[in-house]
Amino acid sequence: MRKIVSRILYVLFFGFAITLVTACIMLMINSSRNTGQTINNIEAVVLSDGAEENDGGYEKIDTSVNSEPAENYQRITIKYGYNALENNNKRYLYDRIAESIYSVTNEPDENGRYRTSRMKIKNERFSEFDIREVVNAYISDNPEIFWIENLFGYAYDEEDTIVEFYSVLSSDECEAYIEKFNDKINSILSEIKPGMTEYQREKLLHDRLLEGCIYKTGVSSAADGWEYFSSYGALVEGEAVCEGYAKAMQILLTRAGIPCSTIRGDADNIAHMWNVAELSGEWYHLDPTWDDNDKDGNINYEYFNLTTEAITKNHIISESIDTVIDVENSDSIDPLSRYNFFVPMCTSKDMNYYYAEGVMIQSFNSAVDDEIITKLVEKASNSEVYIPFRFGNEMTYSEYINKLFYESPYEFYYCLENANARLDEAHRISKDSVSVLKNEASMTLRVKLKF
């Protein structure tokens, strides 16, 4: 009888052990490949070599090389992701990530990865969604961290959580890349002159980014090249997808004293990322990628400081984190759900390119002619090649265009001749090389000048 009971207990215990192990494996191994263009799609893997914190074999990255240029404006530290985290445990993990990612091995592991210093968060079992959320928050706030792979490992040691990240570069390589990165940023920032307004700084940095970077086509995931999704790729290599553009823009603006964050969403049914920037207390949408889509090499300003109403005509903004997260049961949430940590309402048009610089035309009269002449002289004197216009509602778009360029008295050319009379020979505008860049949907127009 004892033998029978003993066998029954053994079978029950063995069955329970198998079930428990299976449940643990299923809990920890929940990986998915990155197929989009944002870091929300981070792969998660189980840590297979134990669940202990391990600080051996790591080298601290020296980030001080050329990191503090003589800047004309105070650098801004962004904490929107950190502030959106709903409890102190997640903020503690955020702070630990900030320590871990600067300690990287110089020798790859058996999988060819360079590990960062492993972390143990005691007395807290973070779900996969929780870890992703904190990682996304940290990366959102710190776009200069370009060496971290789209991957993290995690495991549990009773009630403790073990987390590990991986670098695409060794510690020594990181330092060499960071030096090039900082040199490029400093070179661009050196063009900012004392006394420049926020708008002037933003426009300068927007233009330099677009002049130095081209959109990388045929890229769908980090497997196609991690650089294309990074600020490093946009600024140093000069090739990036939208994520790289947005991260680079955020770095340049915040280091020039302008608050800026990234926005995740969709455009043309494709995962997309762009920016929001704060100027004179008002927030604006800024999409450098879509401003860099001109096949003729023109720098566009159609997505330079838009309202929420304007950007959502062809962009879809992903939900805010506070509408996605289920505080009571984060395990029930799709870990790959896409969200934003900070989505300001943008209502002002004051710093929109066409409002800040454009000539407003309701009807044609001598006052409008004088304004066009003054603007042409100003642009030519500063060797600026674009002059923007925005139109009212007294005529159709084609009527405004025709009266400016194609019908007597050819208002634009009349103004151009008067402007040239005020300019020296070196700055006079060619009458034969004027090109027109139209945007009927927004009732705006840009004229490209040649001197």
Give a quick precis of the structure:
The chain has 451 residues and is α+β, with helices and mostly antiparallel strands. Helix content is 36%, strand content 19%. The model is unreliable at 1-40 (pLDDT under 50).
Give your account of this protein's structure.
The chain is α+β, with helices and mostly antiparallel strands. The chain folds into three domains: 2-170, no CATH class; 172-332, Roll (C8orf32 fold), CATH 3.10.620; 357-448. The protein contains 14 helices and 18 strands. It has helices at 2-28, 80-84, 88-100, 128-141, 171-189, 198-212, 231-237, 242-255, 308-311, 321-324, 353-356, 366-381, 397-406, 411-422, and strands at residues 43-46, 58-60, 103-105, 114-115, 119-121, 148-157, 160-167, 214-215, 239-240, 260-267, 270-279, 282-286, 304-306, 315-317, 359-361, 386-391, 435-439, 444-448. The strands form five sheets. Strands 1, 4, 5, 6 and 7 form a five-stranded mixed sheet that branches. A five-stranded antiparallel sheet has the order 13-12-11-10-14. A four-stranded mixed sheet has the order 15-16-18-17. Helix 7 links the parallel strand 8 (214-215) and strand 9 (239-240). Helix 3 packs across helix 4 (128-141). It is elongated and about 85 Å long.
